[in-house]
C-alpha cells in the first residue's frame, strides 16, 4: 500500500512512536509463583492490577514446597506468594530474594469441608465420629495447609485412628478436588476455596479454630529474577493496597 506523505507525517509518526515506546516501557509482565490456596483471590486481583497499572500478571499455581525446589533449580519466577512464612524466610536467608521485599500478604484459615450439604457440622464432630471412609488432606511436606491439617488431627487425638483413611493431594487444590468429586467424603481445605463474600459457597464446613494449629501466615517476596522488573515491585505494592486487601478479605483471609 502506498501512503502519500505530508509535511506533518514525520512529526506525527515521531509522536506516535514515542507514545508507543513510552507505553511499552511502562507496561511489563511479571511471572508469579502462587500457592494453590490463593488461586481464586489472585485471579480476581490480576484483572484489577493490569487495569490499574498496565502490568500483566502471569501466575503459576502449586504447592509451596514444590515451588521452593523449582526456584532453587532456576525457575523463571520473579515474585513468590507462599502459603507460609518460613519458605520465603529461607529463600531470603539463602540469598535467593530481594532483601527487604518480604511481607505477610494474608493469614489463612483451615476448614474441614464436604461437598455434601449437612455432612460436616459446625463444630467438626463428624471428624471424631470417624464414620467416613476417606479424609482428604494436602501433602504436609509440601503444603502448609496439609501440615496444619496434621496438627489438628494430632491435637484431636485422631492421627492413628484416621491414618488408613487419608487421601493425600500434592497440593491444596488436589485435596479439594478429591472432595468435590466425591472421592473423599470430607477433608481439610483452605477456607478461601469454599468461601466468598462472608459465607460458605457450597457443601458444608467446619471452620477450624486457629488454636488447633500453627498460624498460617502467608508471605510474599520478590525473587532475584524480579529485582529489575518494575512489574514485580508494582505487584508487591499493589498487594499491600486497599483494593487487593478487600479482595483478600472477601475470601476469608485475615490481613
TrEMBL record:
Record Gene3D superfamilies: Periplasmic binding protein-like II (3.40.190.10)
UniProt keywords, alphabetically: Metal-binding, Signal
UniProt xrefs under CDD domains: PBP2_AvModA
Signal peptide: 1-27
Top-rank taxon, per record: Bacteria
Family classification: Belongs to the bacterial solute-binding protein ModA family.
Name of the protein this chain belongs to: Molybdate ABC transporter substrate-binding protein
Species: Pseudomonas monachiensis
Gene that this polypeptide is encoded by: modA
